[in-house]
Structures are given as C-alpha cells and as structure tokens.
Amino acid sequence: MGKRGRPLLPDTIAPSWLVVQLLGTAAVVVVLLTATESRAWIWAAYGVCAACWLGFVAASPRAPRVATVLIAVSSLAPSLALGQAEDSSALVLAVVTVSRLATLTEPSVAAIMGVVGLDVSLAAVTGLVAGASAPLVFGNIGVLLVLMLLGLNRRQYEVQAAQAAALLEQTRLAQSEHARAAALDERTRIAREIHDVLAHSLGALGVHLEIAEALLAEKSDVDGTLDRIRMSRKLAADGLTEARGAVAALRADVPPLAEALRELAEAHHDGATFEVSGEQRPLSSAAVVSLVGVAREALTNAAKHAPGQAVSLRLAFTRAEVRLRVRNDLGDSTRSDDTGGFGLTGMRERLALTGGTLTAGPDDGRWTVEAVVRA
Fold it and tell me: What share of the chain is helix, strand, coil (3-state, %, to 5)?
C-alpha cells in the first residue's frame, strides 16, 4: 500500500476493450501463421478478414462508425469459408470477429443481429453447397448464434455501466450547482446581515453625534452632550456585537433552530423557559437566522424594560408554518418594540424577506413578540 491507503499497483492494467482487441489480434495472427488451407480464395477471405480486423482496431478509438463497418466485413469473410475450410482457422476467425461485433455499443442491437444473421446465412449456404455434413453446418450456425447472445449480454452490461456513469456525472453536476447556489444564498444572507447592522448602527450613531455637536456648539449643554455620547457609544458597541455575530456565521454552519433558541434562553441573565411543540424539521438558513435574531432582540428588550420578570420562549411547528413566541411580564415600565440596538423593526423587515411576519405588543398583562415563518 502507498500513501493514503492507495494500492501500489492499479486495479486494472488496461481497459477491457483494449485487452480483447489485443487478444483478438494475436488470435488472427496465429491463424494466418498456422492455417493449412490450399485454396487461394479462402486465403483471400482470410486476408480480407485480417485487414478489416486491423483496420477496426486502429479506427475504433477515433472513428467508431468506420470501425463498426470494418468489423462487420471482417466477420463476413470467414463465414464464407466455414463450410469449406480444411481446418478450424475459419471458425476461429469467425469466433473472434462475431464475438467482438456483438459487444459493440455503437451499432444498435438490430444492426448487430442483422450482420450476424447474414453471417449465419452465408455459413449455411456455402456449407450446404459444398456438401458439408448437416451437423457441421448447424454446429457452425449454433456457435455463431451463441457467440452473438453472449456478446449482446456483455454489450448490455457496458451500456448500463455507461448510463450509470452518465447519471453519476449528472448527479455530481447537479450537486455542484446546488452547493454553488446554496453558497451564493448564504453569502447574500451574510451580506444583508452586515449591511443591515452597519446601516442601522452607523446611521443612528451619526444622528446622535450630530445632536451632540449641536448641543455643545449652540447651547453649551455639556450634560446633554455627554448623554448623547454615551448613547452613541452604546450604539457602537451594539452594532459591533451584531457585526461580529454576522461575520461568525461565515465560519460556522447555522445551528438547528431549537438548539439555538435553547442556548439563548439558557444565556438570558434573568432566566427564561423554552419549549418546543410539533414535529421539528429543517428550515432555510435565512429563516433560522431571522427567528434567532427576533428571539435575541426580544430577550434584550425584556432585560432592559422588565428586569427580573419571568420570560418564556415557545417554538411551535405546524404543517404550514413555524411560530416563535417570546413573552414576559410587563412589570412597572412602559414597553416599546425598539431599543437603541438593532431593533424589532429591523427584524420585521428581515422576516418579510423570508415571507414571515412579526407582531409585538401587550397581551393579557404580558409583553408578547410573535414571529411566523411559512414552511
């Protein structure tokens, strides 16, 4: 064994068709060297057979149609001499040429059977005309027919192998295109994530800095300016956190939705419960990222507006949709669906890109954020 478990010697030394044609060429040469025929016309038939066989061997890799014609002629020549040859040379040549003809995939089965049928007819007619015995004539015919059937069986195997190889190549190409499309889709999603984060965070940061500059330049309001600077610093920190999360998605696969939500619930500093109902199934990466983002933003809002209050996450799978609901007690503060971070407004826009919807507001004394994605 060589490196990486590869065998030192290949499994096959040469293609099977090449081995067959080399053996056939050797058989033709041996027949021409050992034949004891005394009649010139039979030697002429042997010569035509040998010449056409060699032409077939030379033409088969580049011109399969020409090679098919040559092997057909090569099989007809010894068939003429089957009933009159003085030794078995004609039979050997017929065996070589007919068996190779029947395995070719270029001609149709009907064409192969037509040529072999002509071979059989020539062998029968010339043998009967020459006065050959019936067992000899029908024996030669039987040999040709058996060779044809064996060759056609081998041909069917090669056709199926070629079809399987073509199907495998098509499958490989389809998988490659699918992977490429998935990669493009993921890149588009990440680009949208980063764009949304930067557009929202930098835009809000610019507004706060302009207000801080106006407060300091026009009103000399140092306290108001410091408040704006603190808000700007928080916006920058939140935006940086969101950007890091988006970039991290480039380095790791998107986790299953339920797993990601469970981790968020466990990481929530006030503690949050999480439950799943329905039969779980995989979703698109865009849908998973959007729902996880909704849950993260809802938990952030809950920690800011209602610290210490009970929070629950519930993920429900139905046949037509996936529904995420985040609820927490209102406490004594007034709620809003947006904070200084990325905000549920941005999440609502992102969900809309995946065909989803988002609602947020009070419900029976609890603040409820609900995201629905069609699936």
Answer: 65, 10, 25
